Amino acid sequence: ADCRKSEVWKILILDAFTTKLLSSCCKMSDLMSEKITIVENLDKNREPVPEMNAIYFMSPTAKCVDALIGDFKSKPKYKAAYVYFTDYLPDDLFNNMKMYCGKYIRVCKELNMSFMPQEAQVFTCDNPGAFWSIYSPKSQDKKKTLEKLADQLVSVCATLDEYPGVRYKNNLDNAKTLAELVDNKLARYYELDDSGKKKAQVLILERDFDPISPILHELTYQAMAYDLVDIQNDTYNYKSKDGAEKQALLNEDDMLWVKLRHRHIAEVSAQIFLFLFQITISNLAQMMKKMPSFRRQLTEKTVHLQLAEDCMQCYSNNVEKLCKAEQDLAVGSDVEGVKVKDPMRTLLPVLLHQYSTYDKIRAVLLYIFSVSGTTDENLSKLIQHVKIEDERDFILNWKELGVPIITSPTFFFSRKTVRRDRSQEEKYNLSRWTPVIKDVIEDAVENKLDIKEWPHQSESPAVWNGSGAVSARQKHKASAQDERRSGSRLIIFILGGISFSEMRCAYEVTQSVKSCEVIIGSSHILTPKSLLDNIKALSKGPMENFTIDERSNA
User: What backbone torsions phi and psi does residue 121 show, to the nearest 5 degrees?
Assistant: First the structure.
């Protein structure tokens, strides 16, 4: 909008982060309509176009500012620069920019948008490396990482126009430190501009609050697909019926994906067949009139038929048998509700079967979590069973997250939290486990969070201070409390990554409560395999975490 007055075409220059950010909400056609003729990469060599204006959208880092200065310092590459930063630009970088290319800059703004909008109710900080920085004993930059995450969380609040109260789960120091940082930064931000609505609450917690959900085999469509099918950067590669290689992007533009992603896989397949069946001869003539949109819908349905088929293939090959043992270990009782007295008897058949090493590690971890830690001797036997003697870190490194792995035989520390009774809600025998975050969200919405367990870092807004409770369980009529709470938000931030099943919980509670929107986020999104790899890497040094390609780039 700043340079719309001139009807001339412009160039847009992005860094790696802003490329992702813009891709999440814009198509090339949107940019064309704003008179953007070409999108360029800030880090690459670019041809000079001295007769055109350039819009720079980038992170406020020394690397980005140096690249901008390089474009104008000796011989200007462009006619003028319109510069936008995702976040606060430090004074020294601003002064450098002003000194070397100030006369070419027409506009310079900080947009406060340094997070990644992943889905309608999910954001990330696009920082998988934060896991190592926060939890590795070899990390040197934990404080810097928490500072950066705090800035990004404040950026989320500012974008939502919220000045929230902040609470944190009181068990490890990182959540407390982050809560303090967020609270101070929010105060500073709203000191300058006190326009934020005071109807939100932020809850900060760490990955140890529920180690089970991210490693369990989930049978809802999105979680299952990302666990069992090789989906990279939200892109699903598949072969069409004629053998051609195809790609599909699984995002908010795919309406069928949005509709089906939280459904159980049993419902998904049936639903897709139903949709296809509805496209019958009778409405073909109607469809032909809307040919492009008809084609798109048909393609969407074909993609999901294939993806659901891939999921079901993996399920029937291996996962189905695993799921029963996993659910029994996670829930602590079998399908009939009979308590699992000897979890080792549940685990052994899994270890004796020809499952993959990752699947066996997941089962061993679920066993250890179910008994709140095991003895050194017992663990050694389990590690021999799985044949990972040289890779014990997959299991041992959970201690860095505060999850008990080894306990002495005389002292078994039980950390089991009291769970909500959901026996009336269960529909599928192999999906009896509910992520702990759903209990937390429902307790928060009903103002039932224990104040010792969840201290307030700052005063909560009136609708969150105990008088505006709403029930997340009943189909309730709108009450005066609901009216007060209407339009309020609960923002959850999990340090150490978030799983797809936890993302689903934010939507489920929002659906059932109506008067409160739940937004959930983290440094990054986890799959069971990526989490195990992250855990294993905690005992390595920073350079050892890079793949070979990354090392050559670094």
Answer: -125, 20
